[in-house]
Amino acid sequence: MNNILNKTLLDNIDNISNSISFVCDPHEVRAQIPSHDKALNILTQNICSVSANLSGLEVLMSSLDIELDIIILTECWLSKNPYLPSLQGYTSQSSTSPVNQNDGVIVYYKTSLAGISISEPTIIDDASCILIQLDKETVILGIYRPCTFRNHHRFTQSLNLLLQNLRHFKNIIVLGDINIDITPSRLDEDNDDYLDILALHGLLPTHTYPTRKTACLDHIFLKSSLPAHSAVVNSTVTDHKAVLLSLNTNKNLLSTSPVTRIDHTGLTVDINSIDFSPILSVSDPEIATNLLVFTLRSLVSKHSISKTAPRRRRILKPWITQGLLRCIRNRNNLYKKLMKNQTNENLRNNSKSLWNAIKNVTNSSKPTTPANPLLTCMSTINGSLDHVNSHFVNMGKSLAENLNKNNSSNLILPQPSSSPKQNLPQNRSFSNATKINPTPKIKPSTHKSLVLLHATDEEIENIINTSRENCAVGWDNISMSVIKRNKRSLIPIITHICNLSLSTGIFPTSLKKALVHPIYKAGDRSDPNNYRPISILPALSKILERVINSRLTSFLETFSILADNQHGFRHGRSTDGAVLELTDFVARNLDAGNKCL
Description:
Residues 406-441 are annotated as: Disordered. InterPro entries: DNA/RNA_pol_sf (IPR043502), Endo/exonu/phosph_ase_sf (IPR036691), Endo/exonuclease/phosphatase (IPR005135). This protein has helices at 2-14, 29-32, 50-64, 153-164, 189-200, 264-273, 277-280, 285-302, 322-340, 345-348, 351-362, 381-393, 395-410, 457-465, 480-485, 487-504, 539-558, 575-591; strands at residues 20-24, 39-46, 70-74, 90-94, 105-110, 117-119, 128-133, 138-144, 171-177, 204-205, 218-223, 228-233, 242-248, 259-262, 304-307, 433-434, 515-520, 531-536, 595-596. By secondary structure, it is α+β, with helices and mostly antiparallel strands. The chain has three domains: 13-248, Deoxyribonuclease I, Chain A (4-Layer Sandwich); 322-362, no CATH class; 432-591, no CATH class.
């Protein structure tokens, strides 16, 4: 009789729900979850290699239309991806010492999340675990347990010991890819043992919906008296669906990160009221540039307003437009139809080859690698930054010195051949052979100097009008958008500075400063030689560069100093023209019965 009562009690506990759960597409989540300014949104996703599928996760995050506070990724392949890719606005931490190549848990949490602490408790059965403590009342356990272990008794007992140490927390969340099927129709003795241990600590499943095919392997267990909603999201990141938990905390766990906006109306009023005549009276380009940069930078800072944008309106990736999101929904609908009818050839249509081609064209198959290892190339972080900066600054100088050294001793300039058969191998003969001259003759110029004529207001205005507005802002925080909106007041000042620079031969130092982003190429990640620097220059610097470039290019083109065969970095020419010229030459000679070298 007691056994019957115990079984009935356990069955009733299994049917208790501590959250409202549902299954939906990503764009339907917000309609199902009430809007709470104090809600904590947590997502868990089996990622099957974080470097390969992070871009898919970013698309999913944009499709959800709600902001995620904590993201826990499982099966991250940390042994092959030791450096964690970054997510804008998030800080990351991962489990250590992966046992196998699939192992690993990564947690991404909002940088603005206040008072968070992360540790890595030990769980046997070769499971990875991350413990996230939000405050004195709330703790989260992110777990990945490989599917290779069929008997999960050891794992359950280890989890029991861990939960005993956390019993004083009011809100406990256990989630991740556990690889234990808790679908009600498939429960066995081992699965019941897993559920019983969690229920013993007050943890109940928020859902039992399938997350991979017909099995519920990705779990969220919750012990809390707070209102909660959970969703199994039809994700196409991997073959596992994402699982979302929205917990109404009723207090400010998050310190909201502001979004900076410029009051362009007020900025324009101030710029128009400023007397720039002192700058026009300066004859030193360094002083004139510093005065303009200081003035504009101060005004931009004065009219920069920090606002807290609604969480659902924050843009994660600017390139993910509403039109692209509609295409993603259509793709997800087709994928759901395929899962329901996997024998439909019209839906299948060799989708693997199609997506491989799309990844190749969009260059999304290459994993992104952060430059974090450069911070450890020296004993301190500041020393590492100085070392990397010095390397990039002196890269051009070192290259030029090596070229000069090699040229002085080894370089022999080739001369144009006088006959088609010159420079051919002596032991071979060709009839009617035609040779493409690799060193085309360059016309000598009688002009010994380059005259840098002064710029006009019309030229500066044309440069400003044709410049892009959406470029990254340099160190001075003066964007091209600010210059365009106030060009009537700024054009005379910019023209004056450009002409001073042309007259004195001085490129202002403040316009040489750049924000450098190292892009990894190959090899040792702690060696600066294996990175390509991308420099973010001030908008004013780009204007002066274009003024000088137009004069240099005009001089080279007018007097035919450049070789006719040079197609790169020339207006109206490209690699298409080079290929067309080569193929046309080969085709004409083959049609004439000649052989081409």
